[in-house]
Structure formats: C-alpha cells, structure tokens
Design a protein that fits this description.
Layout lengths: L25 H13 L6 E3 L9 E4 L14 E4 L2 E6 L2 E7 L2 E10 L2 E6 L2 E6 H14 L15 E3 L42
Antiparallel strand pairs: 1-2, 2-3, 4-7, 5-6, 6-9, 7-8
Length: 197
Amino acid sequence: MAVLEVLLYPAPILKEVALPAQAGESERVIADLLDTMGSFERCVGIAAPQIGHGVRIAVVDVSEHPKADTSNGLLTLVNPRILEAEGSTVAREGCLSLPDLTANVRRATRIVVGHQSGETECHGFEARAVAHEIDHLDGILFLDRVESLVDDVFRRKSYASDSGSGSSTGSDAGGSSPAERGLGGASSKPSPRGRTG
C-alpha cells in the first residue's frame, strides 16, 4: 500500500508493547510492511511498530540472504509468539531503527513460532531474524539484549556500496560487513529517501 518512514529510536512506540492485531487490519499493515521492507536493499524483516503501527504484526524473508542456510520463504506473522526455543549463539545484529549501530546479540538457534496462521519452525539466521522482529513487538530493541554495552556494541561502518545515500544502515540481524548485515527492521542499506532506519 505504501512505503512508510521507518521510525528511529527514541520514538516512543519502539519501546511499547504492541497490541494484538484485530481482524480486518492485518492486510493493510502487512502490505505497508512489505512495501517498506522492499525499499531497503537486503532487508530481511520489519515489525509494525517501526512504521508507526502499534500492533503485533511483522514480516520476515531471509530466503535471499547469504547467511541463511534454511528459509520458510516470506513469513507474515500476525500475533506471533515464541513457543519453543533451543540452542544459543552470538552474532552481530543491526536494525533500521538504530541505523548507526550493530551489536553482538545472543539468540536461540532454533525456535517454533505460533501465529495466526499456525506454527512455524525456524533455524539459524531465520530464527534470529524472527526473534528480532518479535522483540520489536514487545518494545525490546537489540541493544536491550547485549551483555556489555562497552564490548558488544559497534558503530556501523560506511561502505562503497552505500555511497550515494549518505549513510549506512541489519536481519532482522546485521553485521560489520556488507555480507553480515541484513536484520529488522533490519537492512544493509538505507532507503533511497535517506536514513530512515
């Protein structure tokens, strides 16, 4: 429906718990999320609060990201919740709503997510991306998950591939190199309109 501006922290909605999505509003919000996600190169996920909708909806698609070994394709998650989680690994994440930073974040390596359409099992990078987006629905940013603000948070570097936009922005997990960037509200490159998250 529309490419919307991605809100940057400290926008208050980013720290609020989103309300359950009601029948009838999901299609419009999902369309806005998909249009907005598509405007960012290598973006793998975005959550409704990041575009100003305080409802529990997120979209994730890691199918073309080089760090994804497995993928369920495009996931449209309405009222998602993590039902099972196992394993643990630390990897670099970034976020459209915190475009200048990346951080080392510990996440489960396998999750099962319940949502309006059923249950979905995710592994590896996809599990990280989905968990990152569900955090957005709970008012949690990736910086809230780091073990050390001193040792685990990094300023994002600029790369030649980001030239022309004046800034750089990760799956819903990013990284310190272009191949590592890509999470949620995550993207490896800002939108053509400039730094929006």
